[in-house]
Amino acid sequence: MKEAYETSFNKICPSCGVGNPRDASNCIVCDRDLSETVLFLEDSFFDLELTQDELVEYRKNFYRTRRTGKVVRYTLKDMEEVKFGHPVKRFIFKYHGERVVLPLEEVNYERLKETLESLGIKFRNVE
């Protein structure tokens, strides 16, 4: 009897957007080190990558179909007044004196909240 193998390509590379096998350490297309990424979220207006040191925002076009090429990097140590908004799901923080607000889909909101908490990032919930 044949053994059934399940191959999943659900580990998305933040750089090129290609799906990789779950156990891949490097991207199969661009060879990026995937072990640096703690969390990767695909949202409506942007993709977010969380590493141990920074939050990276990959902007999408108006139609939400492709990335624009604009990449914004926020180092975690420079983020202040980190908050999660509710009932409208949004991630809010100050970065070098400027307020940054990132609206998130519900699933991504919860995943980011859980991951930041596990990394020891202090935040508060606002209504």
Short description:
The chain is built from one helix and ten strands, in the order βββββββββαβ.
Description:
- The chain contains one helix and ten strands.
- The chain has one helix at 106-118, and strands at 11-12, 19-20, 37-42, 46-51, 54-60, 67-75, 79-85, 90-95, 98-103, 124-126.
- The mean pLDDT is 89.
CATH topology of the domain at 37-122: PH-domain like
Corresponding CATH architecture of the domain at 37-122: Roll
Share of residues in helices: 10-25%
Largest sheet: 4 strands, antiparallel
Question: In CATH's first tier, which class of the domain at 37-122 applies?
Answer: Mainly Beta
Order of helices and strands: EEEEEEEEEHE
Spans where pLDDT lies below 50 across 5 or more residues: none
Dominant shape: globular
Structural class, by secondary structure, is mainly beta
Strand content bin? 35-45%
Distance N to C terminus:
57 Å
As a whole number of angstroms, the C-alpha radius of gyration is 16 Å
The CATH H-level homologous superfamily of the domain at 37-122: Pleckstrin-homology domain (PH domain)/Phosphotyrosine-binding domain (PTB)
**Total of helices:** 1
Mean pLDDT rating: 89
Strand order of the largest sheet: 3-4-5-6
> Got a strand count?
10
